[in-house]
Write a structure and sequence with these properties.
This protein is about 30% helix and about 20% strand. It has helices at about 1-15, 20-25, 85-100; strands spanning about 45-50, 65-70, 75-80.
Amino acid sequence: MLTDIRALADQFLIAFPNINTCLLAKMTKVPSTGFAKMAFDLLELLRTDVCGPMSMRARGGFKYFITFTNNFSRYGYVYLMKHKSMLLENSKEMNEVEKQCGKKT
């Protein structure tokens, strides 16, 4: 694994000869293989992301939002939040979606 990292660093130096060596010293991970877990049914795998605080508030004073994306159907849900502490409330709303589909994540 260490030889893979060194080979990657050597290729990087050839491509970018003027790069700062501090950046190369921080390269510790090997690139991913590109294989991700796939879902084969609704709500089998949900991906979430929280974004914020935004520099400008949305109408209603919302500064954050959270997204839930179903990996199987690619259907997404977006919930606006005024505070990050509202994260748990929005997770409970996703439980309602689970009930409607008859599935559990």
